């Protein structure tokens, strides 16, 4: 797998296909493997790039340098290194925060913005956000990362027929470096776009699951603030929609890319 030096760290990535660029950004505590069901589908018609964000997968795990802003600068330098002038950036969960920040700070790099079960203000999610920050940090400190990985994976893939997906995600999650995971999480929960969301004029698709831990209404609210956005809701899906409903997700993204 190729590795690029950016921003004093190394980013591990995979690239497939030719054409317009789709850059895929994974969720917290996971890796580019989040996109295993998208890469073969989209690489027939696009250049698909999936990378491991800092602190994740096979990329560098710094001791202290974390946060959405740093990850965004990594992505910008990554695109520069590959001489990519424009891309459709697709961000899932934490990757959605990075995609949002990229659209706000470096809009000239984006053809389209795709936000998947994420939000523009992790630091302003009300009770859901406060509960998530408190419960997850407490769980980490008292029970450890392996137990947290088991809990998260079960909540994402609780059905009997999803046991393989659950086990695969749990394996990815528990293989995280504890310090990298902890710092990625707390800095993510401190990040928010605030009023900058109103300045994002990039054509945007927001994908929401009907059973995500934040309700569809949460996504509807911020879609209203985006000048050029549409919302697509995927039924019978939880947080990991790109994994638990890949066909439905791929179809919605394809329609958006085709301007249908």
Automatic annotation (TrEMBL):
The keyword Ribonucleoprotein does not apply. Gene3D superfamilies: alpha/beta hydrolase (3.40.50.1820). The keyword Cytoplasm does not apply. GO terms for molecular function: hydrolase activity. Residues 21-241 form the AB hydrolase-1 domain. It comes from the Bacteria. Keywords: Hydrolase. Signal peptide: none annotated. PANTHER family: AB HYDROLASE SUPERFAMILY PROTEIN YCLE, MONOACYLGLYCEROL LIPASE. This is Alpha/beta hydrolase. It comes from Winogradskyella echinorum.
């Amino acid at each position: 797998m190729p590795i690029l030096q950016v921003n004093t760290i190394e980013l591990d990535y995979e690239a497939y296909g030719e054409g317009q660029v789709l850059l895929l950004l994974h969720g917290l505590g996971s890796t580019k493997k989040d996109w295993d069901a998208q890469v073969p589908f989209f690489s027939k018609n696009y250049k698909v790039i999936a990378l491991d964000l800092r602190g994740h997968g096979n990329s560098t795990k710094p001791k202290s340098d974390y946060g959405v802003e740093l990850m965004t600068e990594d992505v910008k330098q990554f695109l520069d290194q590959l001489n990519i002038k424009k891309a459709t950036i697709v961000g899932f969960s934490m990757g959605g925060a990075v995609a949002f920040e990229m659209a706000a700070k470096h809009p000239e790099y984006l053809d389209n913005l795709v936000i998947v079960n994420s939000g523009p203000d992790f630091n302003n999610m009300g009770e859901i956000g406060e509960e998530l920050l408190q419960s997850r940090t407490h769980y980490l400190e008292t029970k450890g990362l392996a137990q947290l990985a088991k809990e998260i994976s079960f909540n994402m893939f609780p059905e009997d027929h999803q046991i393989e997906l659950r086990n695969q995600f749990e394996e990815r999650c528990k293989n995280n470096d504890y310090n990298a995971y902890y710092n990625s999480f707390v800095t993510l929960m401190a990040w928010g776009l605030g009023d900058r969301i109103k300045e994002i004029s990039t054509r945007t698709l927001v994908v929401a699951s009907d059973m995500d831990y934040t309700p569809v209404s949460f996504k509807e609210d911020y879609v209203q603030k985006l000048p050029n956005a549409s919302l697509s809701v995927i039924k019978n899906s939880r947080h990991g929609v790109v994994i638990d409903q890949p066909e439905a997700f791929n179809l919605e993204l394809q329609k958006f890319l085709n301007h249908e």
